[in-house]
Every structure is written in structure tokens, then in C-alpha cells.
Design brief:
This protein is α/β, with parallel strands linked by helices. It folds into two domains: 3-98 and 289-323, NAD(P)-binding Rossmann-like Domain (Rossmann fold, 3-Layer(aba) Sandwich); 100-280, NAD(P)-binding Rossmann-like Domain (Rossmann fold, 3-Layer(aba) Sandwich). The chain is 34% helix and 16% strand. It has twelve helices and twelve strands. The strands form two sheets. A seven-stranded parallel β-sheet has the order 8-7-6-9-10-11-12. Helix 6 crosses helix 8. The longest helix has 20 residues, at 289-308. The radius of gyration is 21 Å and the shape is globular. The mean pLDDT is 97.
């Protein structure tokens, strides 16, 4: 009888054909919220779960048995309490190197939308208005990438190689350029963004990055610059961002991720949806057919490796758990 693997419903839908085609394991869609997921674990008596971005802060870590697997369907894992999972002897994995193209393409697409006022133009025509507005070319513009991981490298390749943009990379500590498409790397944030037309965030939503882009850092960006965020909503102070957009200290923002999802304003009087210079989409960066299939296959690979006892080959987030 195939081993049962529970997959949260949203993720199951995103890669239904892949999950449904398995023969050695039986993938079962279950609710994503923690209590409902825990009830399903108890009902199906399985130690294997594949989860999305819902927050897991308590009961999950006492419901799964030691050696159980929490396989994240995605790269970010700020919704999983890794210290608590490690203490419980649980194996937590993610799916690296499978979604950078999808997120990078959205990042560059959002820059193009901003440069050509596409949202306002398309909405205007739909509403019966013909009001063409002068836009700008991306060629020759400066793009600052905050972070230099796999997604940032993919963005740099598309932006520099395809559009002829000048790409500046920022990391907290000095490091060489991670690829040929970076014109410059710096650990000086003010220098990195000082001449930017676009600033794109590519850092994890870890506690040390909470509200990384705050009022002080926003003030260092030129007033012509657009902020692009396809990373994590928690890395931006949304109240400070709203104030910068309203005051004209920032040209605009294109956001795929938010501190609270579905989006809720950080304050009742600072609703980003009310601003004309903001593009908002519902966390679709990795949501392509291709990336969904790759994430499903990678998550299932991690589960199969756990079943086979090949723990060292898994995409473990905390490898020290193997020593506990």
C-alpha cells in the first residue's frame, strides 16, 4: 500500500497532475491551516506533509512524530518554526533552484509595467478612455538588486542581457559579483541605490531582515525610482512605503508580496490599494505551470529520500538536525 503524503490544498491544486500521478506514494490534499492539518495527520497516521506558506507556529511540531518531514513547496520558509522543528527532531526541507526563472520573469515584467504605465493604460481603454501617456525604455536604466542569490542572478541576466540595463548588486557584506551581468557590487546601501531607477528586493524574510526597507533606507532612493518586491512582504515597512509614495519621495512600487496575505493595510489610513502609483498582484511570482511542477517534484523527492533513509541527500534547511 502506498505511503500517504499529505499536501496542503492550495499546493495540491497548483501541481495536481504531478501529485496525482505518483504511484509509490499517495498524495492526499488536506487543509492548510495548522489545526486542520494536524487533524489530518492524526487521521491518516502519516509523518509526511508538503506545505505552502500558511504559518505553522505550534501544534504541528508536537503532532508529527520524530523523523517526520515538513516539505516546503517553495524556497522561503519563514512560515515554519525551524528551531521548534529541529528540537522535535523533524526534517524540514525546501525546493531550491526550481523557481528563479519564474520569479525573475515577473520581476522584470513588473519593471516594464511601471515604465510604460501599463496598468493605467489598459484600465483606461477598458473603461472607454483613450489617454496615452509617455513611458520610458528600460535600456540604459539602472537596476539595483538587494540580495545576490539565485533569483537576483536570474533577474540580472534578463535585465542586463535582454534589456541592456545597468545592474548594481547590494549585499550586507562585501563579495565578488555572482555573475557577468552585474556592473558593480557593493555593501554600501546608499551607494547601491543612489542612482537607481528601479530597486528590486531579493532577500529572505528572516527575522534579521524584518522591515529592512524602512523609512531611512527609502529616503536614500531617488524620487524617480520604483521599488519592486517579489521577495517577502515582511522585508518592507509598508507604512513607511505608503508615506514615501504619497509624498512623492518615491515614484512608485510594484509588489507581489505583503506583510499580511491576502493583503491587509498595515494601518487603516495607509491602504496601498488606494494609490495610483502602485501595482499590486497576489503573490504569483513562482506560480507558473513550469515552476509548480518543479516544486512538486522536488518536494516529493525529499519525501522519498526520507522514506529511503537517505537523509543527507535531502534539501534540509537545518542540517544539524541529523546530529540530534
Amino acid at each position: 500500500m502506498p505511503t500517504a503524503v499529505l499536501v496542503t490544498e492550495t499546493e495540491f491544486r497548483r501541481a495536481r497532475s504531478t501529485f496525482a500521478a505518483t504511484e509509490d506514494v499517495e498524495c492526499i490534499p488536506v487543509p492548510g491551516p495548522e489545526d486542520a492539518l494536524c487533524d489530518a495527520i492524526t487521521r491518516y497516521r502519516t509523518p509526511f506533509v508538503i506545505v505552502g506558506s500558511s504559518p505553522y507556529r505550534g501544534r504541528l511540531y508536537s503532532t508529527l512524530p520524530r523523523g517526520g518531514v515538513i516539505a516546503r513547496f517553495g524556497v522561503g520558509y519563514d512560515n515554519v518554526d525551524i528551531p521548534q522543528a529541529s528540537k522535535a527532531g523533524l526534517l524540514c526541507t525546501n525546493t531550491p533552484d526550481v523557481l528563479q526563472q519564474s520569479v525573475a520573469e515577473l520581476t522584470v515584467a513588473m519593471m516594464g509595467m511601471a515604465a510604460r504605465h501599463l496598468v493605467a493604460a489598459a484600465t483606461g481603454v477598458r473603461d472607454g478612455h483613450w489617454q496615452p501617456k509617455e513611458g520610458a525604455e528600460l535600456e540604459g536604466k539602472t537596476l539595483t538588486l538587494v540580495g545576490a542569490g539565485a533569483i537576483a542572478i536570474a533577474v540580472a541576466r534578463i535585465a542586463a542581457g535582454g534589456y541592456g540595463m545597468r545592474v548594481i548588486g547590494f549585499t550586507r557584506s562585501s563579495r565578488p559579483a555572482p555573475g557577468p551581468h552585474f556592473a558593480e557590487m557593493t555593501s554600501d546601501f546608499a551607494a547601491a541605490v543612489g542612482d537607481a531607477d528601479f530597486v528590486s528586493l531579493h532577500i529572505p524574510g528572516s527575522p534579521d531582515n524584518a522591515k529592512f526597507l524602512n523609512a531611512e533606507r527609502l529616503a536614500l532612493m531617488p524620487d524617480r525610482a520604483w521599488l519592486i518586491n517579489t521577495a517577502r512582504g515582511a522585508v518592507v515597512d509598508e507604512i513607511a512605503l505608503y508615506d514615501a509614495l504619497v509624498s512623492g519621495r518615491l515614484a512608485g512600487a510594484a509588489l507581489d508580496v505583503f506583510a499580511r496575505e491576502p493583503y491587509e493595510p498595515a494601518a487603516a489610513d495607509r491602504d496601498l490599494r488606494m494609490l495610483g502609483n502602485v501595482i499590486l498582484v497576489p503573490h504569483i511570482g513562482s506560480n507558473t505551470a513550469e515552476a509548480n511542477r518543479r516544486m512538486a517534484l522536488r518536494a516529493l523527492r525529499n519525501v522519498r529520500l526520507a522514506i529511503a533513509g537517505e537523509l543527507a541527500s535531502m534539501d534540509l534547511i537545518d542540517r544539524e538536525v541529523l546530529e540530534k
